[in-house]
């Protein structure tokens, strides 16, 4: 089967990291806007609104290739890819080791790079347009106590700018959201005293919710944002 899946069933979307807090919220938000969502994660704990839960380790390029081949064969060519998969070790720089560093870069940056590559190649081969939304972070803009995490998200932002321009001629839009502090299990790994300090510096006075991040992702995935590409949308409560 080929071609973007539309019609009564709605356009197809792939969301990586679909078992996490933001991933589940993105799945629900895209479902509400009429998408059929394929949730991808290392474990099949997708939001119940997902059309299907697929298991893959998107940090491994070979698994990414197999994933998109399977999606194309079984479901069709997606209209939207959301690169949401991410890890946050909450590790001090002096405690880093090569294995942890490689995991952070492979998941946060590598999965975004190779996922977009596999998706864009399929779109270009079919002569179809598409939309990519990457989930970056405020840590990629202002740094992070976890240096590898901040570096990986900064690279996602640079990749978004680069690919948004490089793929525009193929009718493929590439944007990102940069969340601030969000109430998720990942944020729970931040030490309590540091969480309190962050909260005190957020102008709106609170952490964000996964649904608020998902709403921004859904807008960037929607044709309503068709003139937006190579752009990073801050969703951070005014924290800079």
What is the highest CATH level, the class?
Alpha Beta
For the record, the CATH architecture stands as 3-Layer(aba) Sandwich
- Number of strand segments: 7
Quickly count the domains: 1
Largest sheet: 7 strands, parallel
Low-confidence stretches: 1-8
CATH superfamily, by name, is: NAD(P)-binding Rossmann-like Domain
Strand order of the largest sheet: 3-2-1-4-5-6-7
Mean pLDDT across all residues, rounded?
Answer: 93
What CATH calls the topology is Rossmann fold
Number of helices: 7
Describe the structure.
The structure is a single chain. This protein has 7 helices and 7 strands, in the order E-H-E-E-H-E-H-E-H-H-E-H-H-E. It has 240 residues and is of the alpha/beta class. It has a single domain, classed as Rossmann fold, CATH 3.40.50.720. The chain has a 7-stranded parallel beta sheet, sandwiched between helices. Strand 1, helix 1 (21-32) and strand 2 form a beta-alpha-beta unit. Helix 1 packs across helix 7. It is globular, with a radius of gyration of 17 Å. 46% of the residues are buried.
